Amino acid sequence: MRLAPLNLPPALTERYITTEASELTYHIIEAGLKGKPLLILLHGFPEIAYSWRKIMPQLSIDYYVVAVDQRGYGRTTGWDSSGFEAVDLRTFSVTNLIRDIVVLVHALGYREVDCVIGHDFGAVAASLCALARPDFFHRVILMSHPFKGSPKLPFDVDNAEDPKEGSQTDIRQELAALPEPRKHYKWYYSTAPASIEMSPPEGLHDFLRAYFHLKSADWAGNDPHPLEAWSAPELAKMPYYYIMPLNAGMRDAITKDMVNEDREQVQKSSSRWLPDPELEVYVDEWARTGFQGGLNWYRVQTDPKWLRDADLFAGKMIEVPCLFISGTKDWGIYQEPGVVERMAKVCKDFRGVKMIEGAGHWVQQEQPERVVVEMLNFLGS
Question: 0.90 cut: is pTM over it?
Fold first, then answer.
């Protein structure tokens, strides 16, 4: 099916890339001249390459800038689009996540990436690229999702004092046992009902408008701060869009967070940085594809048996220069207590944290000019 072109800023173009090295047909948005140093931009969930449209024109003055719809997202095709039970989750492995980008870069005619930049889920992908191939990805910028370090494997098992040492609390049971029973969104996203509940086109515009609003700096209910521990009482301090009511789907959770919001005011405030024609791009894409492709990555991340290939990098640090950027109103950076503070210990050349005022989770869309300044300062250092 031939899709209508995306409504892009004048400096941006889109096209498709095929290569015999991959089953994917990559959909990319690009800006700048080939031959200049390459920047690769990796989006989050529930986003697509289009999410980078606001910062690409200025970055393209000195760089060739490419944003890609990742496996499971948007207009990239060729991935396993089977239903929840039938999909082969091996195709959504950590090593495939890295390989997809390495293959794309070669197909573009490059043998190195000056900087790989990722937001949200894309920050997971970008950190893994930098971790695995420091010879190929020379720098990395992570946004809204900090790098918590490479996997830890059981060590010196003959002399271990406590075989359970380091095992993580079953947070799902703890959350469900709270006086107001809750559940973690990542585990909900890993279940079959998630895509069924979220994907229907009916009401999708209102759902995504509310979802983007609640995770932005516009929502007065956002008061992010460090949590004391990975415990149910602490995690329950986060909004319903992260720690959901136990028996709610994501659309229901968003409705609960929106209960005291003036819909007209929400429309007015969020349209400053995400007007309806731009929101409609997301609505159209998710209505067409459904959410299961993007949600498959959560299934992999929450089930250790699908993460075994990441053990290849056990004990390894990110060796290349690394910068972290986030909005001051973004709860995402505090999801796992202490992770931001530990980045200096898991990155050999950590260049610090830049917090952007007036931005929540969608930092490069809410405050693109400020983000570009921080990026260019890092890239020029």
Answer: yes
